[in-house]
Amino acid sequence: MERDNKDYTVSFIRLTALVLLFSCHIFEVYGFTYNKGRSIGIFGNYCAVCVQLFLCISGFLYGRRKDLFKNYNRFHFVLKKFKKVLFDYYVYLLFFIYPIYYFLRQNEFNYSFIYKTLTISQTIYGIHHIWYIPYILSCYLITPYLFDLREYIRQKNLNKVLIFLLVFLGIILLDIFFKAYHVYFNSAWIACYVLAFFLNDFLNLFSKNKLKIIALFFLIVSSILNFYKYEVRYLILPNAQGDLKTFCNYYIDYSRSFFAISIFIVIWCLGKYYVKSDSSFVKLILDFSDKYSYDIYLVHMIFVKGFLTLVNKTHSLSLNIIMIVFVSIINAILLNKICNFLKWGAAKLYSKLYLRITTS
What we know:
360 residues
């Protein structure tokens, strides 16, 4: 599914991540918090690969770029990406979260709350999904070095399959370091970005028929891993201690990351070789998803797990889901419009100041 050089397969993966985002949080709350059925909550937990898919998408798209930093300053790249991610987030805080908490949760709205949300040093219940932001910013920081590594691999003509496996091993070693020193980051999530960065080169090594086998392999292995994840997470982990507890956490984290990468590979292969669609309506939905996905991610949580939750608003789960999705989309569009207006205003002000200085 491509049009005007836009890869709508990646857009469909992004839309899939959005669907999983709502499914994960809504069903977990409905099943566990409101005791509507343990199986519903467990199903929601299995959908919890949305952030990992978002990281895969970002890594994959940059991995397809060629010589990005040949004529592009690395510092400017990082600065631009930080501005893009943080601007919408800080506008969300200023125009949405702070007023809501000030008027409706005054006992929680204090200097500590402001500091933690501004620095993203600790997540706040109701907007605790913002842990994604430090992860994607960290991935942007290492992106220039991923380009260097890829260029080194190409110049040395190294075995790309072996490099793919070595990169994965390096990520596991990094995770051991993170765990040993209690670092904020979980490298299983960073692995999604890093492996997806090299995924395009990896997939291009194989023919269409071999890609079918690879996609099937990833799907089967991830299904097996996640089948046993139920026993590990809900039967073994609650009573586990020491090394067994560490192993369980590793198993859960990496089975989730592997599941996200498998979903990406399967959808990408289907979109590239089997599923073709020229429907303008489908592409309209995918364009909408591409434009507003980040803002939807920012605003949705307070209506699901926050104190403005709509999960149990009525007796109909279907109606509650529709309300959550609708309210989230409306707020995302509003946030996006406010951000665009502020950017436009800032650009106009800068132009006037620049003109005044240069003509004075």
